[in-house]
Design a protein that fits this description.
heterodimer, A: 268 residues, alpha+beta, Alpha-Beta Plaits, four-stranded antiparallel beta sheet, 39% helix, elongated, B: 94 residues, mainly alpha
């Protein structure tokens, strides 16, 4: 017999009791059906959970699984699938990946304990979504016309080309800086809150180019289209710079309120 | 490993979650979200997943796959630090 423990995905508001139906047939982590844990005293704040094998999610197993990007991806996408389904119907507070309880009863106790704080944050996040804004400095090509190359020795031509490439790169960084300033200024005219993520690098970073800005903004749903369009427009016209907008996301980056003053937080 | 492809959210796959780039998802799942410590059997925060994952994520940027960009030291010498290296954005721009 496989020992099962409880994987918790998110806290959500189930105002009309219809949320469970939304989850029916949706495979969670380990392909188990997702259900809702309630406090039992007709509160509308619920926790989405499913059963996972203890053997895969105890500390030792998890520690080694997490070094396996393929395993991590499967779990991350399953987690996200459940969050998306909930977010399509309700306001949701995603929990950190791999939050695991001994059983549903422990989840219920946790919920009863924190219900008021959850309800407050859910109210603050109602009708808002998260958008990602990333800025890339793209690889600068060698300049089109190596003007005096014919007259130069190969050595000097090489040095001249290198110098031109370096200048193009410096220009691209300068452009990225200006683009970042304008994009951020524009984004903040809509955003309720802003979070900076670490710039993306490594084998999973998609490029092309170097990611220099990786921000998340919390935006009222009614402004979503304008936000997206204006942010992209603000990043237009900077050679060697690409602005990418992702979303809408459930408010992963804003599940806990910012400690600092919203939006006005200083750049790191 | 997944192929490094085009931009995210431009796929024909039916499910929205299939279109999300894993790295964007991990940014959110590993550093965002509510952390419940104390109540849980286990959470990411307990085992410092972030460090483990980052090791996996950044391991390839080093020798085998050097960045095409000048190093920070190079840029610093020239007074050309990339955007993120500057404590604040200058008001007037360059």
């Amino acid at each position: 017999m496989t020992e099962l423990i409880t994987y918790a995905y998110a806290v959500a508001r189930d105002a009309d009791g219809s949320l469970e139906a939304e989850l029916s047939g949706l495979p969670g982590v380990a392909d188990a059906p997702v259900r809702l844990v309630r406090t039992g005293d007709d509160g509308d704040v619920v926790v989405a959970v499913s059963a996972v094998p203890a053997a895969d999610f105890d500390e030792r197993a998890l520690r080694s699984h997490l070094e396996d990007l393929d395993w991590l991806e499967v779990v991350a996408r399953a987690h996200h699938r459940v969050i998306e389904a909930l977010a399509a119907r309700s306001t949701v507070l995603p929990l950190r990946l791999a939050t695991v309880y001994v059983d549903d009863e422990s989840v219920r106790l946790m919920l009863a304990d924190r219900r008021r704080a959850f309800a407050e944050r859910l109210a603050e996040l109602a009708a808002q979504t998260e958008w990602g804004v990333k800025i890339y400095v793209e690889a600068a090509e060698a300049p089109e016309e190596p003007s005096a190359d014919q007259d130069m020795s190969p050595g000097r031509a090489y040095l001249s080309r290198r110098r031109a490439q370096r200048h193009a790169r410096q220009d691209a960084y300068r452009h990225a800086e200006e683009a970042a300033r304008r994009v951020e200024e524009t984004a903040r005219t809509y955003a309720v809150d802003q979070v900076r993520h670490r710039a993306q690098q490594g084998e999973l970073a998609q490029g092309p180019g170097e990611n220099v800005v990786n921000d998340a903004y919390l935006v009222p749903q009614q402004d979503a289209e304008d936000f997206r369009a204006d942010v992209l427009r603000a990043g237009d016209g900077f050679p060697g710079v690409r602005v990418e907008v992702t979303g809408p996301w459930a408010p992963y980056s804003f599940a806990v309120p910012a400690e600092a003053e919203p939006v006005r937080r200083a750049a790191p | 490993m997944r192929p490094v492809g085009g931009p995210p959210a431009r796929s024909d796959e039916p499910l929205p979650n299939q279109q999300v780039a894993l790295i964007d998802l991990l940014d959110r799942l590993l550093s965002g979200g509510v952390v419940l410590t104390g109540d849980v059997v286990l959470s990411i925060a307990d085992i410092d997943l972030v460090r483990i994952t980052l090791r996996a994520l950044v391991v390839s940027i080093s020798a085998a796959n050097p960045s095409p960009w000048p190093s920070r030291e190079e840029l610093a010498q020239r007074g050309e630090l990339p955007y993120l290296e500057q404590p604040t954005l200058p008001e007037g721009g360059p």
